## 1
Amino acid sequence: MSRSRLSARLAPYYLVLPGWLWLALFFVVPTFVMLSVSTQTGDIVSGFKQTFHWHTYVEAWDAYHVQLVRSLVYGLVATLLCLVIGYPVAYWIAFRGGAHKSSLLFLLLLPFFVSFVIRTQSWNFMLSDNGIVLSPLRHLGLIGSRFHVLQTPYAVIGGLTYNFLPFMVLPIYVALERVDRALLEASADLYASSREAFRKVVFPLSLPGVFAGVLLTFVPAAADYVNASILGGAKTTMIGNIIQTQYFTNLDYPMAAALSFILMALLLVGVFAYARALGTEDVFEVNAR
Amino acid sequence: MTVQEALREDTAPVRSRRRSRTRWVLPVWSWLVILWLSSPIIVMIVFGFNDTTGKFNIRWQGFTLRWYRELFTIPDLTQALVNSLSISLIVTVIATALGTLMGVALGRYRFRGSGSVNLLLFANIAAPEVVLGAALLSLFLTLGVARGYWTIVIAQVMFSIAYVAITVRARMAGFDPALEEAARDLGAGPVATFFRVTLPLIMPGVLAGALLVFALSIDDYIITSFNAGNTVTFPLWVYGASRVGVPPQVNVMGTLIFAGGVLLALLAAVANRRKQA
């Protein structure tokens, strides 16, 4: 009897163990290894040695704070655009979708069936100077010959907004879908206009979805470098591009590791503060459904 | 029809006048957004039929099925696609198995340390991709592990487990532990109980998680590129080609993957609906 009770108590640990080990070995340990790499000195030929050279962080900030701040700004602008563009869509599907809700959601998710890189590449193709959008406009004389979209911040932020929009719409939709319709009846009975009902009832109840959407959009958008390298130019370089270049072109691993750490610290501290403010469980639940 | 839906229909005429403006603004906006979201897909599909010559597939030059016939004429691209498909299959199997076990534990039991496991999953999902990729690369560089096919598998399983665990955990919310106890009382061992009682009951969650992993894995660029070495997957190949001009075969492969994914999703939806009815 006591043996079976003991094994029942251990059961969850057996179940968690394999996945936990994988994450410990390939997610937690590497994070500490990266921290250790970031304070090493040396070069690729003679090797790197641990010298606790924390000054690399200062150097990293001095050299690349422009790209770091730019990434946060691009990420923030893209997130706000996603919110403004996506909220009405989520609202429309949740409240007016009727029998077609799942079909409409499916249409919204269609881009996910095409590779992220191909989608971004497709925008490069459409927005190129001789592409199918700009060359007709130029022929009509609506834009000058010096007008470009590619290699500008607009192209990069547009690409980020495009690629992460569904991550914003879905959690907001889930939150709106859960709003009890009887509350709307109640507010109408109490002579609230539909605008007031939205402002005082529906919008506050959708906030957990908005928070989750902001989280799911901002982190990947700020850390992305695919959009910046396919749609952007030299003046739109983001921190992800720098990290990639430091690892693969400059082979300056300590600098690359320090930059990754600064990026992660900035984003994770923000995320955890954010999650704390509304309870981790809440973010998780919207995520999961 | 639920009570809420009935209520809504009941009061709809009263409100219709007040909402006449939002009535068309919202749908027009939403359809424009949907059109915007699908435009690169439409372009991808259409230009897979473009009778282009030379390296750049930019201008429409007439309809052809040539690229469908010559789909596998670029050996590197074909190899990349094969790599992507086989890696995604392996990753899906491993990540679904590990994630399901975690999800069952978190959804079924209250145990010491479950909070920190949840935190680990949350941190894994919240951490930016470039950092996950860079950290794992730091480990491989420090240990002197050569990057290639299997390091891609390791990396992709690492970012996939949490998604399965959370999907399965949500599915466990409606699980009745008495069913497991009944199986044990009837003499089933823990392993038999898991495979014959627990697993069938949470199968929809497991399948949803597996599909999600396959989609994430076959599409991943950032983490994969950090740990790929000289092995090339489909997204990596397309990214590399984007500087010199993407051949129409990429459009065709993208179209076929798109069609396959949509078909699979529709089948799953139909099967789900039939089960509920």
## 2
Amino acid sequence: MATAVQAVERENYLNSNYGIKSWLLTTDHKRIALLYLVSITAMFWIGGFFAMLIRLELLTPAGDMVSSDTYNKLFTMHGIIMVFFFLIPSVPATLGNFLIPLMVGAKDLAFPRVNLLSWYIYTAGAITALTAMVTGGVDTGWTFYTPFSTTYSNTHVIGAAVGIFITGFSSILTGLNFIVTIHRMRAPGMTWRRLPLFCWSNYAAALIMVLGTPVIAITLLLVALERAFNIGIFNPQLGGDPILFQHLFWFYSHPAVYIMILPGMGVISEVVTCFSRKRVFGYEFVALASIAIAVLGFLVWAHHMFVAGISVYAALVFSLLSYLVAIPSAVKVFNWTATMYKGAIRYDTPMLYAFGFIGLFTVGGLTGVFLASLGVDVHVHDTYFVVAHFHYVMVGGMVMAYMAGLHFWWPKITGRMYPEAWAKLSALLVFVGFNTTFFPLFIVGYMGLPRRYHAYPPEFQVLNVLSTAGASILAVGYVLPMIYFLWSLRYGEPAPPNPYNAVGLEWMTPSPPPTHNFDETPIVTWEAYDYEHQPQEEVTVGH
Amino acid sequence: MAKPTEEHFDPMSHVVPVSLYVTIWAALMVFTALTVFAATVELHVFNIVVALLIATIKGTLVVLFFMHLRYSTKLTMVTVVAAIFFLIIMFSLSMTDYLTRAWSTSIR
Amino acid sequence: MGDIQVAEHALQHHFADMEQQQETSTFGMWMFLLTEIMFFGGLFCAYLVYRASYYQAFVEGSQKMNIWLGATNTAVLICSSLSMALGVRAAQMGKPKLMAVLLLITIVFGCGFLGIKAVEYHEHWVNHEFPGPAFHFETGDPAHPATDPVHTEIYFSLYWAMTGLHALHMIIGVGLVTWIIIAGLGGAYSRSYFTPVENVGLYWHFVDLVWIYLFPLLYLISKKHGGG
């Protein structure tokens, strides 16, 4: 029975210092992770609010709730917030920041003050973008295609672009910190082959952050300059090429989707191995697949531009490369499945979300391969088929992985157990709600319904109503964890150091960990996921 | 002087002599003069080749000696190579579009 | 403070020893420079695409560049790199006053570069060679009128964007070197700890490196017709 805990607490990173200054001026990676958790959750709900308005408008075929201009703003702002302010930082900035030093056996990240600066930059960028949104909005789509964004749009393009530009530096600095930490701060005995796959995945994502984000930064800067000074780099009437914008934009934005999914895949690796009580099948392959995804991800960007007017020969090259990039992701799915085979499966909440991830990510990933085919893409580009594809990988995949990770490490982060029954119910609602929302979109998209329109022909209404109904269920599935996580902070069962009997350095510290992580620098002598030698004690999970 | 390995890297052990820095400086000045001179000669399509070649030589000297890459860890070198590699990706794959657009217009 | 005490004072708590801190710090700086390379890289990509497509327009635009001012600026930056490298060496030898003098010389060269750049910018500005509604381009040779002024405007857009971004980095560099001088004279560095000096040096050389490519690409596109 959970009761409010009043016992004298051992020193940990949460109670070592009180007061707002101790949080706003902290350099402790664990506190910074929580600062990010708050900001990112806030942005998630704002982005979700725009999604709700979109789905409400699409209940009826007529554009009767908002004007088409307003609708353009709604999907733009939903996209900008969800991509740049939620998905990209979510796992790295919260779970990555918290766990990576613990997992490698370090006292903190390589550059703790840069880490704090990174959060401030994120928040400044978010406020800038939100200001642009509330003072009139942006209607270019999150993709900012020119020359509409540079010349013809009458909305706050520069404000939104500047907000994203600023937040981009937060991403760059986080990535830089992770790479340097993983190279230079590993404890004695923590070789690359013993590194948790969560670290490998975040390392690969960090490579992309560092290499790709500067390109979108300069591109958005050029858009802002063009808009402000009427320079014509992307405007065909002034000699520019609008497709050059798309090349530069997608050079980052395609690898960006791998920034989003790789950390999520890292979470899944950790969850699957723990709840199968088996080491990950093909550890080296999974680790190298992360790096392969990062590198190959940079070679495929123009598959977003097949019908934009690029040369068909270039399209052929990018189509072939896009097929290749699916391979390492498939390797991971096979290896997770093989890990579970003949394992001792426990159906705790993180594992439920992992099951959801594996299935839904596979669907999303395969539909991505359909899109890589030139012939198919001509038919379904800019339809709801694409919308369904990326929501399957991003929401069915990434957000589920994020939920899996939050649940898995919540006891470690907060020292409290969440209520398992409610958590399982939420997972189920998310799964049902998600599929009800997005599967119909595959169908209407294939039937030809274009995206980014506030009105549609009446024959598509039934499936759209189904989709909106699904969205309501999905929303409930997301609201419940907000409630029970907050509830658990005060009333949750105090968590033991290792509630799931998992293998990993982070589980060898108390829950929550002390400020300096380890009393003595650990010396690692065991292989990763050494579940064969982990004693099979009774796993304590609160109910 | 032994090249530092990752385990025994000690930046204080290696001081680059002034004479080497001055030599590099002189080489850079000479190459600058050379590239200006080459621009006064009509070499058609090779103008750009020569210019970029000289610029790359100058850049290599700056990176190796002024930025101490010659005396740095392998990891640092990998970082520099990675930058060049991804730049080349961005340039070359973008150019697959621009260089082949004209090919399609001949198909009517 | 003594040599070792400076290092001990600068050692941060999450590092095992100064060697680890030094390696980490330098690696971090190189990673940052990698992001800067990609940042400028986007502009170089745009340059490459437009130059390949509109070569003649670019040739005509670059004829308007003052090759002597550009070459002088290149030489100025190379000299500043030498003084910077020597300054870092002085810090490595534990000689803060010598370091300060050499870094001051570096700043002088840096400001010289910015001054010459300002002169060039002024020249282009009064000649209406700034993109936008007021842009107006003429080759100045009645026998060879401008073939493609629309795309020459793109050339100038890239010229201003690339050199402007570079100049901004120079200004930041001057600020960073100033900070190092002040901290150095205040006794912050020693033979055992001079990583910030080394890192600012890396930044400065990187900015020089960018210019090494900008100069031929913007100023030396083709045979100069006539002087300067």
